[in-house]
Amino acid sequence: GAGVSQSPSNKVTEKGKDVELRCDPISGHTALYWYRQSLGQGLEFLIYFQGNSAPDKSGLPSDRFSAERTGGSVSTLTIQRTQQEDSAVYLCASSLAGTSGGAYEQYFGPGTRLTVT
Amino acid sequence: KNQVEQSPQSLIILEGKNCTLQCNYTVSPFSNLRWYKQDTGRGPVSLTIMTFSENTKSNGRYTATLDADTKQSSLHITASQLSDSASYICVVSARGTYKYIFGTGTRLKVLA
Fold this sequence. Notes:
The structure holds two protein chains of two kinds. By secondary structure, chain A is mostly beta strands. Chain A has no helices and ten strands.
């Protein structure tokens, strides 16, 4: 079946512009995560959605970052007034459920490589 | 603080050789540990998952070990192939949380 898809695969934007990154999770997966992967760094947790529960936004680095998940499926990560330090690969992952202790497998999308010039 | 550290940062080996990657963690209370393979330009893909009671798990030429007492894990790759060239990421989950702690990865390059 179809895996997690993300778009665009690459995005180059000018400093100060807003960008939207899209994630289509695997159908039926109620948990969705956004991560940021900078060169030489481990994946950094950004935000977590689980069903209809309020999202965990504790990883968002600033108020320029926001995300939403419509209808429990597609998610959009928005970065306003982009800065050069926002340049990174943004990965989305989904799983059947976000239970305690990571019992369920996370399936990752291919990521969006964002470059802010 | 929950952390996952991997070594070496990078490794170059010849095709057909074996190698072992290391992962040390301080995540507590421990739930499970996964090894992921991430090809360039792709998202990570799970290789193995081990819980507290498991000390070895194999997936083809990949064998992971876990010592929950010393909080160490290793990933052994046997008879390496060019397609093994990738980053290998150790990920640990803690009980009572849905978050995953990611190591920075080991970048492996297999040469012909």
